[in-house]
């Protein structure tokens, strides 16, 4: 890498976790993206890009007809789809020390390439690994187990309050992705984790699939 013998450097994951002799086998897996930096908090000079390969979760098939079910029961499926998208923001802002801000914007121009629905919040943000896992599968936030870093890591079921105030709207394992592709043909998630300078972006699109 052209590093001088006396120069110090660190190797980190995309979540800025430093690779050491103790955690090497845990953090360095096949296909993982690593950074070679002068310090853990070094500003990146350019954007990095990685491809995510995965098999869809079985709920994608088992529950793929949920919105059609709502329609057959005489209910409008669109509010259920929007509720799924807002659910992520409710969870992300549930422990905010200050104001919880969640905005829902309907964009009818071409600023995003096509008309779009945007949900914007001031929550804790998601790391690259959390975005990755959201794409790979999305078990219920209450039943997720294993070694994966959950997109709801640290989540605690809230005290009984109106469901509009907590993140207990969603009951479906892959509801977020179902909702996205019920409303449109692509999803673009942009997130900056709290206490991090990195901005992560995830794109899922029907065209790519």
Automatic annotation (TrEMBL):
InterPro entries the UniProt entry points to: HATPase_C_sf, SMCHD1
Top-rank lineage group of the source organism: Eukaryota
Gene Ontology BP term (one): double-strand break repair
A Pfam family this chain is assigned to: HATPase_c_3
PANTHER family: STRUCTURAL MAINTENANCE OF CHROMOSOMES FLEXIBLE HINGE DOMAIN-CONTAINING PROTEIN 1
Listed name of the protein: SMHD1 protein
Species in which this protein is naturally found: Bucorvus abyssinicus (Northern ground-hornbill)
């Amino acid at each position: 890498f052209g590093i001088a013998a006396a120069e110090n450097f660190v190797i980190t994951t995309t979540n800025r976790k430093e690779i050491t002799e103790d955690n090497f086998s845990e953090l360095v897996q096949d296909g993982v993206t690593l950074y070679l930096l002068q310090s853990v908090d070094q500003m990146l000079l350019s954007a990095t890009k990685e491809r995510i390969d995965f098999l869809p979760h079985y709920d994608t098939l088992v529950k793929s007809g949920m919105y059609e079910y709502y329609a057959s029961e005489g209910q409008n499926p669109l509010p259920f789809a929007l509720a799924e998208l807002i659910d992520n923001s409710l969870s992300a802002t549930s422990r905010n020390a200050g104001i919880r801000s969640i905005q829902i914007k309907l964009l009818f121009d071409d600023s995003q390439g096509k008309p779009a629905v945007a949900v914007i919040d001031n929550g804790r943000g998601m790391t690259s690994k959390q975005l990755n896992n959201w794409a790979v599968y999305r078990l219920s936030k209450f039943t997720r187990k294993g070694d994966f870093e959950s997109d709801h890591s640290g989540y605690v079921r809230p005290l009984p309050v109106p469901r509009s105030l907590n993140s207990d709207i969603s009951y479906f394992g892959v509801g977020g992705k179902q909702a996205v592709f019920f409303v449109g043909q692509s999803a673009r998630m942009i997130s900056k984790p709290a206490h991090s300078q990195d901005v992560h972006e995830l794109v899922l699109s029907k065209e790519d699939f």
